[in-house]
Amino acid sequence: MDTASDPVPDRVPVESGAPLAENARGEPPAAVPPPNFCTRCGAPWDPAWTECPVCARAGAARRASSGSRVFSSSAPLRSALVLYFALLATSVVGILLTLAGEGPSANVILFIDAVDAAIVLGWVLKDYRRIRDGLVRGAKPLHYLLAVLLGTGTFLFAMLNVKLLGGLVSAEEIRYSDIFLKQGYGWSVVLLTLCVQPPLIEELAFRGVVLGSLRGVLGPSTAVVVSAFLFMTLHLTPLGFPYLFAMGIVAGWLRGWSGSLYPCMALHFTHNFLVVLLEMGGG
């Protein structure tokens, strides 16, 4: 059959909801019946409906899921802050015990260190999934070399910080090794207390739990700054705030760059060990 002789059809197929043009005879388009399916999800449609129940249920599920994610994202933030305030409380207790005694006491320092270690190790077990990557992932020799260099840099900055700010306010410099030596402890206890416990426990706390918890909430860069600020204020030594904050920043950056907690511990150890060596030499 010759298709050219066929009459032009009155209607042409169109998608539901699409505007209809006049047909070839100039007649107005015929009305298109309401769709019998949802144009969004394809579910059966009742002309009396104003909203697809399937789409409505899916939207409600998405909103509930979004609310659940917002609620769950606040859990790491709470974990980080609770740990910080728990450690801050032990620092305040240490100061109160020192004020109640006759000055700095090695026994008080050892007691507070033991409590801090118990708190942090318990938190590590509780939030292990957030810091697991930092503990199971090893670091490259370059990371450790950089850790030593950065630790030396923070030590030099700390010495400059103490000389400048200490001179401005005429503050007495505290030699922590003398506290232990005068009370009968040896250098081995000094090294364990100043060079082993802080690098291990404080790095697990701040570059482990705190930074690991904050990264998913605040983003990597902001988390490093906030964790460094918390690390600084925990020590309750305003004269040392500049170098403590700098130390927190470089340790946090090293944690992100190396992917491991061990270079952060090496940086912290280097800093504290140089302080002990200086005190050993009478500096």
Helix and strand arrangement:
Elements: H1 53-100, H2 106-126, H3 128-136, H4 141-169, H5 176-182, H6 187-218, H7 220-234, H8 241-258, H9 262-280
Helix pairs in contact: 1-2, 1-6, 1-7, 2-6, 3-6, 4-8, 4-9, 5-6, 6-7, 6-9, 7-8, 8-9
* N-to-C CA distance: 110 Å
Percent helix range: 55-70%
Instruction: Name the helix and strand elements from N-terminus to C-terminus, one letter apiece.
Output: HHHHHHHHH
Q: Strand count, sense and closure of the main sheet?
A: none
The shape is elongated
Radius of gyration: 33 Å
The share of residues in extended strands comes to under 5%
Instruction: List low-confidence stretches.
Output: 1-18, 66-72
Question: How many DSSP-defined strands?
Answer: 0
Fold and architecture overview:
The relative contact order is 0.11. Helix 1 (53-100) runs parallel beside helix 7 (220-234) and helix 4 (141-169) packs across helix 9. Helix content is 70%, strand content 0%. The protein is an all-alpha fold and 283 residues long. It is elongated, with a radius of gyration of 33 Å. The protein contains nine helices and no strands. It has one domain (76-280).
